[in-house]
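Progress against Task 2.4 (sequence-to-structure conversion) is shown through the following example record, which the project officer requested during the mid-term review.
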Amino acid sequence: MSQFPACKHKRHRAPSSPPQGLQWLASEPYRLFFFSGAVWSIIGVSLWPLFYSQHLGFYPGLVHARLMIEAFGGAFVVGFLGTAGPRMATAPKLTPLELIWLFGLHQAGATCHLRLQQWWGDALFVLLLASLLLYLLVRVIRFRKDTPPPQMLLAMTGLACGIAGATMMLFPSTWLAASRLRLANLFLYQGMLLPPVLGIGSFVFPRMLGGEFGEPKTTKEGVAMLTRAISASILLVASFVMEATGQISSAFALRIFVAVGYLLAEVSWGRKRSGSLTSGLLWSLALGSLGLMLTPMNYAQHISIEHLLYIGGFGLLMFVVGSRVLFGHSGDLEGFFTRSKWVRFLVFLAVLAATTRATPAWFPSTTISHHIYAAWTWGMLSLLWLLWHRTRFRKRDETD
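Structure tokens generated for the chain above:
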């Protein structure tokens, strides 16, 4: 069975005929959002070569950051949760109208950022995440047939952090207070992604390593997992507040402790099956952890160093998990565990882009050249990833 992630839901009777057209896309919104997110990431990084070649009339720092976190990262969050969330609760899938609304907000917000309409871009992003959160909560509270896995709380925490960070950006007072601006950035850039990585990751990583999904087997185990998810959510938010108020070392020590400790507690890391993509998963976690560890050692250059987390951690991880979803929903689950020089090359590009972009933190003279090299490398990776999965975006699992 290739259903992802809720194979257990096969016990419920399948519809008499598979959904078609918009109804099919609404039931699997990742097909639109993953594709769009990867395309927007190419646009986001292309701003740097355009700027340095004097073909862009504005400094792209802020626009690039918003496109990469909201148009790229946000698209993968919405695509994954919009697909997996209803399945986890055995609730109705998204409707075509809901899909059109979410995808329209996604495109409009990204376009506003590209047109330097930052306020509107952030406002539309808030509306996008709030809409998805509302859709999921209604399904969990009113329509669920099963209780969602406890880790879903961390995914909801990520949506809440993204909403909080982007909302704070809408107020001029945020831009006038350094601590408030830093907190808003942390909620938006790290808070929207790190909790879902831990929560959804602890659910799907065991499956990606060849085992079963990380679901509680007993009520007692479910309570323990929920307690750990609540604790991790609270401590992560606390670490963002600590960093914003100047407690840099303590904040990062707490964040690393929570992230590493949670994944070690929730995931059995013995690989029952392996392939090039499972190696990519481990590379992404290693680079993300390295970024968190190195940043407080040279905090004045945190923007460059944190790209180890953003590119090597979050970015590579989204492509690896996205590949798992694409293989599973196209009826080729075994394809995820293949050993492939092509996949190893894609992972290499992600590692190269991350390390290249982080290098200026220690060698400032390389800033311009490494901005360009990292942009081209990431753009190539995103394009090749899209081409690699081009048929899987359209192919469905006939047994689903």
